[in-house]
Design a protein that fits this description.
Helix content is 17%, strand content 52%. The chain has two helices and nine strands, in the order αββββαβββββ.
Length: 181
């Protein structure tokens, strides 16, 4: 009987601990690929910041636009910041919302989930449901996702002169290892 009571108390305490803490990261990775007819462009940032609240399944992720590196040239990076994403005016991209499925953050495992929220790019918010995979292992959480972002949804126009070099839909991949804090 004492053993059962101890197990119940331990489980309750672990849920209480999870309810008070959040999974956070400031070194998540976000990659994008533009695979257009005449050119393949890749860029990434390892400065994705984010938090997941186990108590209510809410999340928030954000990255500075100017933190992206890669590209095929420095001029491409310049155009990305100045002409397309206007990073001086719209300095961050973000995705905030709630994980739809219930996740038992106290139990190790892999969870296929859908994240519903506002994707804010270039000052244009779009409600999106993005399929993701959460892996919980030894008190840590890793979230991974790959999805497409149509540039038109975020009022990003591509000049006709380069429309065969920049895809109208960008493939985005996110991977963030998060710890409880």
């Amino acid at each position: 009987m004492l053993r059962v009571l101890f197990c119940c108390l331990t489980t309750f305490c672990s849920f209480q601990l999870l309810a008070q803490k959040k999974f956070v990261t400031d070194k998540g990775r976000i990659d994008f690929v533009s695979n257009a007819e005449l050119e393949l462009i890749r860029s990434s940032s390892a400065k994705l910041q984010g938090a997941v609240n186990p108590a209510n399944n809410q999340f928030a992720f954000s990255v500075l636009v100017q933190s992206f590196r890669g590209f095929n040239s420095e001029l491409q990076r310049e155009h990305f910041n100045e002409k397309y994403l206007e990073s001086e005016k719209y300095s961050r991209m973000s995705f905030t919302g709630k994980i739809i499925e219930q996740v038992d953050y106290a139990i190790d495992g892999i969870y296929d989930v859908r994240a519903k929220g506002e994707l804010d790019i270039h000052g244009q918010k779009q409600t999106r449901i993005i399929k993701s995979q959460i892996t919980i292992e030894q008190g840590s959480l890793t979230i991974e996702s790959t999805f497409k972002v149509p540039l038109a949804d975020h009022n990003i126009s591509i000049p006709r002169i380069v429309n065969q070099k920049i895809a109208t839909e960008i493939e985005v991949t996110v991977k963030a290892a998060m710890s409880l804090q």
